[in-house]
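thread: overnight batch results

M.L. [08:02]
morning all. the overnight job finished for the chain we discussed friday. pasting input first so we're all looking at the same thing
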Amino acid sequence: MHQPMNELNITFYQHNIVWGDAEANRRRVEEVLATAPKTDIFVVPETFTTGFGDHMASLAEPQEGPTLQWAMQMAKRYDLLFVGTWIVKDNGQCYNRLHWIYPDGTYGTYDKAHTFRVSGEYDIIARGTRREVFEYKGWRIKPAVCYDLRFPKWLRNDKLGYDLLLVCANWPGSRHEAWTTLLKARAIENLCYVVGCNRSGVDGVGGKYTGNSALVDYKGFAIAEAEPGVDEMVTVDLDKEKLDAFRQKWPLYLDFD
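M.L. [08:03]
and the structure it wrote out:
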């Protein structure tokens, strides 16, 4: 059946990342993809190949390294846009780099702009400086990574430049209320859908993650949520016609500061 251009089908996979084992994590995601329903976009959490911690820089890959090559295969095999972050070493510096890979093998990247000072990421991972928006199937999509979510000015949807904010994260369970609140706040203030794909489980140094991955609509309602604390794949449809109608009725962006 032909899919209307104003609809987008997105799947996010909340899972317990195997600490420091990129091959095991790629294998796990590949197994899940083999069972996934047909989808336009497939999203995995931040640093899905390694987990988030002091060990990240030592496990950095070259830009054209094994995870990118694997992700290209997945995007082509399942005819989807694959989205996730892993650590890349580029020009002598390490970046927490979000990738979006199209089915034809082309791709784009966004480097995490707000590296997390409290955890020490700030000291080992270089900060990105470019805002990015890309298009897929008629939708304008803005990528962001974890801590970026706390900075509304960085994510401001000036002139309604994007329809979907896509956030990959390793956001600890102890701060899950901030995570869910900020997802809703960014959706409301930017008149857009927001997908937050977070990890679950326990990391290699005992950090606990509840996930709380969700799709939030432009009114701030979580219309699809993963069960906290478990590995789960969630698929949901987005409707751009409804988004556009809401923006016309409530043109709040005209009064942005």
